[in-house]
Amino acid sequence: MNLLVVGRGPVAQVLAASARRSTEVVLATRDDVPGAIDLDVARHGREPRPSRRTLLPTLPLAEASARSWDVVLTTAPVDAAALASLLAASPGAALASVTQVPSEADAVARAAAGRPWGLVAPGFLAQGRDAVRWWQPGGLGVGLAGEAADTLRLALDPHRLRLRDVPPFAPLHAAVVPMAAVAVLEAHGWDRRRAAADARRVVAVVQEAGQALAVAYGGRPAWAAAPVVSSVLRLLHRVTPFDVDAYVRDHFGRHGAQTRTLLGDWVRLGECFDRPARTTAALLAELRVADERRAVAV
Question: Which of 31, 61, 93, 256 is spaced 20 to 30 Å from 224 by Cα?
Fold first, then answer.
């Protein structure tokens, strides 16, 4: 079996390094060149552990589109037209995406055009560039949703990732609580204490987004309680085996555009299904105003 992983970030590297030994894996991005990357990927631990280095070939997306694949797994935003081009030479390929953004999931569904497709909820945090370290809290596991789940199970090593089947669109619901917290955290300049004091706003966004997603895609709305959100934000640094503040600033700070797309999707769904998302819309507007101020300052 051959697996194309679209993306080069920490999540892409963890998934690529966690493939079965019998799976041929290739990494591809728009800016890649034909060559190879020496992955240094290992679990986070309080004691140093030897890393598992893996030499994997790389291709630019244009060349990857000319090859046939058994499964294409995207870890970066790719629009429906680009996905259709990528799959043109792979009529039997399954398509999966590591996304929790409704509009991106819809693009994957359109690009699938009858082929097996699905969503992946990573269930782990990963950081680093040359050396990637990842942490999978508790028994959360990597959630596989949709018809592509069976093919992904054949490509990925279940012992490394704790693979588990989840209902369709469960990955979209899984994003609600953490990403509502991330958005409020960003609004407070990544200050966890200030965000913890604003836990009620996190809960309001969770309620709005959860209801909109449940109406649009089915499933059970996400739930959160302000005291729990506040406690988690205040104590998160005690349970993570790495500098969580640096991780949040680096990872979500670099992906602010996707956070805004996600919030915008929640607002749009609320409008479409008569579930007004006023708190979410106000939070999105606040983040955009901050973006404009930074742009003027630069």
Answer: 256
